[in-house]
């Protein structure tokens, strides 16, 4: 054991990077409870460069290293660490392991029309039957088609494909390993084999040799390189978590028995259930549900909903003058404002002004146009709750089952007003928390690997006992 390690606790480090911010969270078990401590936080966002929306991976990796140094400063050295991020974005490496081209963000417009190029090769219905992944124009399958169409020389020189968490962990360890849950978001994985669909990849004209075998959360990637040990001041193992942040968040659903519907609520709202088998039926495709990979080969049968991105964008347009709690209060004061938008409409994906797009949407459909901040917020929150309600109906129709509760996990679990609207719209009890679900789930995969928990069920019981969970009962008007 490292001489500087505090013997009292065994620490694990979760590096959780979202589309708007990143955080380093140390965790340990104490008296049967998981204790989380945020030790470092940094801003994130796509950079606009020459009309492109790009990720600065060099800056992000510098932030990862800076946060790791805090462990040394605090004298709390983790036995292992893991990185999770959002889905679908990736890097391509050449034969010298250098990044080829730009690292695009999923909101970039280069994928416009790429679905048609894909469907000329494989019809949309057949693609869903093969992968079970919902159509989103930013899925990796369409991003790679954009590379093929616009910069084919990059694909020709590509030797390794890595999702962003895998890339960062490669920089930490010198080992290239591809993680399963995030891999499924590419729309290039077979839900039966749980591996890359090599035939599909070849049909699309992507180099099949650049895709590494998919590994499950809990797989040890390796120790830090000597260079990294010198930089951060310690060594530890790097272990795969469920590196798609939603997959980690769903691991931390505080479900002790039975099952329920979850909403992983953040920039996106991922709403669905856990299943043992993928549902690749035509009805599922028409309802735009997806079958993303989860821990222990579970499937996250869910719908991707625009989420808190809309209210985050409005808040930024107001120079962050209001807290989210204040925006909730202002929306509640305008609760009678009845206009509603389809939050999944592509016009809300990356507008120059979210406020103006919402106003135009309402105007074009003959609805009352929101003017005040409170009215804008009310439209967003009511529209999200309305979408959640409709998604519950579709879930129950598709599965032939009825669910008693909705579990809201992630940062959005702190939005009490939205949680109450969700209970009203779904007619179900809403259980909100934990707020740091993704970091907790990241930690759970490491702790199961480390022998702290015998199973996912045991780890979820610990989550239920460790964090405040608030219940919201449906209210009638």
TrEMBL record:
- What's in the keyword line of the UniProt record? ATP-binding, Disulfide bond, Kinase, Nucleotide-binding, Rhamnose metabolism, Transferase
Where the record annotates domain Carbohydrate kinase FGGY C-terminal, the positions are 262-448
Residue stretches making up the Carbohydrate kinase FGGY N-terminal domain: 11-251
Under Enzyme Commission nomenclature, its number is: 2.7.1.5
Q: Name one GO biological process term.
A: rhamnose catabolic process
Please tell me which top-level EC class this enzyme sits in. transferase
- One Pfam family this sequence matches: FGGY_C
What GO molecular function terms would the record report? ATP binding; glycerol kinase activity; rhamnulokinase activity
InterPro entries (alphabetical): ATPase_NBD, FGGY_C, FGGY_N, Rhamnulokinase
Q: Supply the PANTHER family for this chain.
A: L-RHAMNULOKINASE, SUGAR KINASE
Give the UniProt family note: Belongs to the FGGY kinase family.
Can you say what this protein is called? Rhamnulokinase
- Source organism per entry reads Eubacterium plexicaudatum ASF492
């Amino acid at each position: 054991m490292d001489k500087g390690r505090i013997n009292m606790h065994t620490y694990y480090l979760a590096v959780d990077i979202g589309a708007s911010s990143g955080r380093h969270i140390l965790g340990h078990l104490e008296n049967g409870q998981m204790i989380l401590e945020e030790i470092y936080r940094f801003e994130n966002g796509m950079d606009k460069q020459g009309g492109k929306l790009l990720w600065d991976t060099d800056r992000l990796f510098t932030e990862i290293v800076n946060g790791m140094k805090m462990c040394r400063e605090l004298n709390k050295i983790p036995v292992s660490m893991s990185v999770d991020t959002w889905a679908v974005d990736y890097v391509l490496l050449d034969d010298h392991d250098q990044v080829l081209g730009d690292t695009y963000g999923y909101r970039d417009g280069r994928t416009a029309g790429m679905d048609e190029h894909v469907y000329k090769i494989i019809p949309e219905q057949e693609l869903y039957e093969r992968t079970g992944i919902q159509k989103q124009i930013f899925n990796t399958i369409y991003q790679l088609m954009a590379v093929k169409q616009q910069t084919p020389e990059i694909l020709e020189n590509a030797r390794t494909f890595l999702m962003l968490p895998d890339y960062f962990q490669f920089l930490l360890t010198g080992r290239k390993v591809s993680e399963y849950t995030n891999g499924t978001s590419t729309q290039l994985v077979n839900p039966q084999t749980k591996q890359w669909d090599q035939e599909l990849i070849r049909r699309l004209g992507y180099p099949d040799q650049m895709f590494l075998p998919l590994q499950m959360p809990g797989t040890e990637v390796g120790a830090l390189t000597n260079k990294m040990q010198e930089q951060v001041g310690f060594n530890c193992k790097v272990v795969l978590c469920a590196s798609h942040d939603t997959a980690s968040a769903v691991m931390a659903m505080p479900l002790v028995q039975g099952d329920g519907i979850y909403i992983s609520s953040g920039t996106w709202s991922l709403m669905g259930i856990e299943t043992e088998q993928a549902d690749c039926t035509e009805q599922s495709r028409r309802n735009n549900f997806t079958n993303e990979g989860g821990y222990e080969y579970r499937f996250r049968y869910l719908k991707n909903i625009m989420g808190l991105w809309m209210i985050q964008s409005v808040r930024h347009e107001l120079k962050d003058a209001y807290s989210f709690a204040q925006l909730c209060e202002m929306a509640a004061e305008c609760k009678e404002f009845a206009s509603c938008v389809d939050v999944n409409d592509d016009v809300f994906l990356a507008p120059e002004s979210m406020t103006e797009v919402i106003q135009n949407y309402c105007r074009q459909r003959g609805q009352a146009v929101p003017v005040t901040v409170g009215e804008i917020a009310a439209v967003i929150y009511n529209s999200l709750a309305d979408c959640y309600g409709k998604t519950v109906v579709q879930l129950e129709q598709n599965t032939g089952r009825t669910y008693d509760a909705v579990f809201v996990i992630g940062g959005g679990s702190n939005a009490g007003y939205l949680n109450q609207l969700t209970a009203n719209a779904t007619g179900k009890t809403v259980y909100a928390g934990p707020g740091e679900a993704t970091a907790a789930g990241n930690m759970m995969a490491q702790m199961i690997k480390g022998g702290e928990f015998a199973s996912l069920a045991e780890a979820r019981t610990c989550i239920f006992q460790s964090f405040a969970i608030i219940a919201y009962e449906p209210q009638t008007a």
